[in-house]
């Protein structure tokens, strides 16, 4: 038997093991603790099938936009335009249906293609013009906000919205499952398969891990980074469409708040099951944590301002856990 086997575990090793465990499973433990606490405090309202369905339904749009952002973050870039883009897409899709009489499927397709185009623009500015992604996407997002207000004259488009468009988000699938949950599951499932189980996903992770090594191995780094922005743009467009369908109107700033929620979900997800690595399943868990927390606050009648405070605190905690996971993984 070797000396290493007989050597007792030191306090430093024990602390490192505890930190590593918390960095990987702290978010899961926190989610389970919240579910148990809310179930105990409100046994008639919280732990019901209807409420859990409502939580997923309310979180579905955040999960979609955060799923697209996850791909951009994996390739090593940040997309700050997604919330502003989603607001613009919501106005545009309603305008195309109401003002121009386009069929609902065609209007949705046109808006999603525009989302891909915006992603291409972001990718071009970052990869070819060498502008930092934070500055580039913030600038693009500001331009999109201006376009949204210009198109709508600062007023929501509310009249003449057809029932067929409302049912895109408010309709239900088999067994009464809301459409938004089904769409979210399909989008995140597809993104997970691409990132985790495809050749393209291997390139995405390689570029995010080490762009120089990826370039030397023959990967077109600029193309992969641009792809990340395109995925993020399409998911933002889809989120804007579903939000406009849910609200029954196109509003200039309706989706702006999704930016912070998406980033909080992505960074919480990086502290889930992996050592500070961004991944689609983790983003789903991160968005679910935020949704459960907000749902519990609403059940107990917490004031609206507390949600903003909590969301900011969650983002700080998420980044801290993600950084801790990376530090532990590098030791």
UniProtKB/TrEMBL annotation:
GO molecular function: transmembrane transporter activity
Main location: membrane
The entry's keywords: Cell inner membrane, Cell membrane, Membrane, Transmembrane, Transmembrane helix, Transport
A GO term from the CC aspect: plasma membrane
Entry's transmembrane regions: 21-43, 55-75, 82-100, 106-127, 134-153, 173-195, 226-245, 257-273, 280-302, 308-329
InterPro entries: ABC_transp_permease (IPR001851)
Pfam family, one: BPD_transp_2
Membrane topology per record: Multi-pass membrane protein
Subcellular location: Cell membrane
Protein name (Swiss-Prot/TrEMBL): ABC transporter permease
Organism: Plantimonas leprariae
């Amino acid at each position: 038997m070797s000396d290493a086997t007989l050597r007792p575990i030191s306090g430093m090793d024990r602390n490192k093991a505890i930190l590593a465990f918390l960095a990987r499973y702290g978010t899961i433990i926190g989610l389970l603790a919240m579910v148990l606490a809310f179930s105990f405090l409100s046994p008639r309202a919280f732990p019901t099938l209807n409420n859990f369905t409502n939580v997923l339904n309310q979180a579905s749009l955040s999960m979609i936009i955060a799923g697209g952002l996850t791909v951009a973050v994996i390739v090593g870039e940040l997309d700050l335009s997604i919330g502003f883009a989603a607001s613009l897409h919501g106005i545009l899709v309603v305008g195309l249906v109401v003002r121009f009489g386009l069929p609902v499927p065609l209007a949705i397709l046109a808006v999603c293609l525009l989302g891909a185009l915006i992603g291409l623009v972001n990718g071009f500015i970052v990869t070819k013009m060498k502008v930092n992604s934070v500055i580039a996407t913030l600038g693009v997002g500001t331009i999109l906000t201006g376009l949204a207000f210009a198109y709508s004259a600062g007023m929501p488009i509310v009249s003449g919205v057809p029932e067929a468009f409302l049912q895109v988000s408010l309709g239900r699938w088999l067994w009464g499952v809301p459409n938004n949950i089904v769409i979210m599951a399909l989008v995140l499932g597809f993104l997970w398969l691409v990132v985790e189980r495809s050749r393209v996903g291997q390139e995405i992770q390689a570029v995010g891990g080490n762009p120089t090594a990826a370039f030397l191995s023959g990967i077109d780094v600029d193309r992969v980074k641009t792809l990340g922005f395109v995925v993020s743009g399409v998911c933002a467009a889809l989120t804007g469409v579903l939000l406009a369908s849910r609200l029954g109107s196109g509003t200039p700033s309706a989706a702006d708040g999704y930016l912070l929620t998406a980033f909080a979900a992505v960074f919480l997800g990086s502290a889930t099951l992996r050592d500070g690595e961004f991944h689609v399943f983790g983003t789903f868990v991160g968005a679910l944590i935020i949704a459960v927390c907000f749902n519990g606050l609403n059940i107990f009648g917490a004031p609206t301002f507390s949600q903003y405070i909590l969301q900011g605190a969650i983002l700080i905690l998420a980044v801290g856990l993600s950084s801790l996971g990376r530090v532990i993984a590098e030791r």
